[in-house]
Specification:
The chain has 7 helices and 11 strands. It has 2 domains: 66 residues, no CATH class; 116 residues, Jelly Rolls. It is an alpha+beta fold. The strands form 3 sheets. The chain has a 6-stranded antiparallel beta sheet. A 3-stranded antiparallel beta sheet has the order 7-6-9, with no helix packed on it. It has a two-stranded antiparallel ribbon with strand order 4-11. Bound molecules: zinc ion (ZN). The site of zinc ion has 6 residues, from α3.
């Protein structure tokens, strides 16, 4: 699907991704953004061709030492490299690694009216990655975060503090953020999330909501 990303990871996150110093769960979210985002691929100094390779069923582990040189050498090669094997994708989502599609198929759980969650991985500590679907026009309860939440829109859009986040857009929210994101009226929104810890509700709605949703 056509994507035009406007919200990107912080440069420090991209550097940590490239250096392999971030958790696999956060790398998974960043990999899907980078695959959808020519700007971030340029920032990383990677060729466009890497976008597909990031999604070709590989673990979202960062590149090994020397891999970039090997890649660049391959790109200089007049023989076209074989197309990476990509997992079948959902046409209404931006492209994601196979394990994300698998989680959506096998672990989707309706948590509240209009809301489903599909766990992808848990730990270490209280870290978790999951898919979150929220229905058209719905607002999340007001909350903040412990540690950092990295959230990527796969489908639809939500509005947060005057900004609209659409497919491919990524946000990094920490404990300085006090917000109540709201899905736009056009349709459901599906996000891929990695969080260091469960969100921290700031109102009674959230305190009621959280045990059911479990995020
Ligand atoms: Zn980007």
């Amino acid at each position: 699907m056509a994507v035009s990303t406007r919200h990107h990871p912080a440069d420090a996150s991209l550097v940590a991704y490239a250096a392999g110093t971030i958790e696999p769960g956060r790398a998974l979210v960043l990999a899907a953004h980078i695959a959808a985002c020519p700007d971030c691929r340029r920032t990383l100094g990677l060729a466009e061709a890497v976008g597909g390779a990031l999604l070709s069923g590989l673990e979202p582990t960062p590149m090994a030492p020397g891999a970039r040189e090997a890649l660049m050498a391959r790109l200089d090669d007049p023989e076209p490299a074989p197309a990476p094997h990509s997992p079948p994708q959902r046409p209404d989502w931006i492209a994601v690694p196979a394990q994300v599609l698998e989680a959506a198929r096998r672990r989707k759980r309706w948590a509240a009216p209009g809301v489903w969650v599909a766990s992808i991985a848990k730990g270490p500590g209280r870290r978790s990655s999951y898919l979150l679907r929220v229905g058209a026009g719905m607002a999340m309860p007001r909350h903040t975060h412990t540690g950092v939440e990295t959230i990527l829109v796969l489908k639809g859009a939500y509005e947060d503090r005057g900004q609209v986040y659409g497919p491919g857009d990524l946000a990094e929210n920490d404990e300085t953020v006090d917000h109540r994101p709201q899905v736009t009226a056009e349709g459901e929104c599906v996000c891929l999330v990695f969080a260091d810890a469960p969100l921290r509700p700031l109102d009674w709605v959230g305190r009621l909501f959280q045990p059911f949703v479990g995020i």
